[in-house]
Amino acid sequence: NSLHTQHFLVSPKYSESCCSVFTTGLAQTLTGMKFCFPADPSIVYGNYNYSYTDTSGVVQTEHINRDLQVVYFTDIYSNIYKLQWDFAVQNNGTKTAPNWQVSAHSWVVKKIFSANPGSLSGSGDMRVGLDTLDTGRKAFYPPAVSSGGAGSYFDSHNYHYDNVTFANLNSIYSLFMGTGDREHPTYSMIRNRVYAIYDDSDITTSQIDPTTPVKDSSGASVS
Questions:
Q1: What is residue 216's DSSP assignment?
Q2: pTM of the predicted model, to two decimals?
Q3: Which residue in 72, 75, 151, 187 has a CA-CA distance of 20 to 30 Å to 202?
Q4: CA-based diameter of the chain, in Å?
């Protein structure tokens, strides 16, 4: 399917192309991507529904199976990056199939987690700070990804905001990754760990009542 067929290259300098839809794209540089990638990426496929208005003014809904949802990849310094193909669909002015076209497109990549440095927070604590002396963890394998379990559960109370609704709840993923040195597995000067990461970076919010300020759990306005 030309709408979602992609070829991509992930490196400190990465580019994008989409076979029969787009053949060119600007090279992009992510300055924080400094380390090599020893592991294969974790690729998540899923189903994608999109809508467009045809030339008769009727909203049409189409469905794609095994659409590329997200790619997670880990560098040797235990940073996890998230790569997505972001696009928008609109009617292309014809009544014959396919009567849609991709109106916007881009590769989107962002770092969502780093195991270095460690945290000063104890169990159950948050935002105590970073332990800048607790570094050196390596990762040689990709994260295990759970989309079904995380995607079917969402607790809005974790976000401590009122007067908002949440969207993209089907884009939550849980990642599980362990660190260690494959060449020196018995080194004790590095505190290796197993991590569970809750990736809700695609969640967006909208204000329910525009006349009421959005407040956090302390009552302070955040809008």
A1: B
A2: 0.71
A3: 75
A4: 69
